[in-house]
Amino acid sequence: MQRIGQILPCLLSDCGIENAVTLKFLRKNWNSIFGFPIAEHAFPKEFKNGILFVTVNSHSWLTQLNLLKDEFIAKLHAYKVKDIEFRFGRIYINQKEKIYKQHNLTLSSEQELWLRDITKNIKNNDIKQTMESLIQKYLLFVNQINENIIKNQGEHHV
């Protein structure tokens, strides 16, 4: 009789569960693995047979990331990524929002007050909500940059 520890990896691999778990992990940790600005323009879509398929939201980024393909593979080797295919496509908003939530990026009270003040005179609710959403995303983006700058400065001083 074989032990479960010997059988389980084969079962996970045969059923594709291992690929799904790896993809879920990569998606969850994408921003911490690559950071800004790569996480803003690229997101893992599928992982199959050791190949990671990454959606890229602009042709210029697609070109740049293809030039960095070997670096990506080296960085993701520990996750059993043997190759990467970058493909042009849309990165859906909920994927990016997950990145922001994962790192607990929020607006400061001053930013929230400023946001309300800027949009308070907009009468049309649809336009107001759209403007608030755009400004909020911009501010979160700025907060992400500032967080990365502070983090990188701390790494250089150690």
How would you describe this protein?
The chain is α+β, with helices and mostly antiparallel strands and 158 residues long. The chain is 66% helix and 12% strand. It contains 8 helices and 3 strands. The protein has helices at residues 4-15, 17-34, 38-41, 59-67, 69-76, 93-102, 109-119, 125-157, and strands at 42-48, 51-56, 83-88. A 3-stranded mixed beta sheet has the order 1-2-3. A hairpin with a 2-residue loop joins strand 1 and strand 2. The protein is elongated and about 55 Å long.
Could you give the count of β-strands?
3
- Annotation field: number of helices: 8
> Radius of gyration from the CA trace?
20 Å
Q: Between the first and last Cα atoms, what is the distance in angstroms?
A: 52 Å
What characteristic shape results from the CA principal axes? elongated
Strand order of the largest sheet: 1-2-3
SS class:
alpha+beta
Spans of at least 5 consecutive residues whose pLDDT stays below 50 are none
The fraction of residues assigned to DSSP E strands is: 5-15%
Helical residues, percent: 55-70%
Global mean pLDDT: 79
* Main pleated-sheet profile: 3 strands, mixed
Task: Please provide the ordered H/E string of secondary-structure elements.
Answer: HHHEEHHEHHH
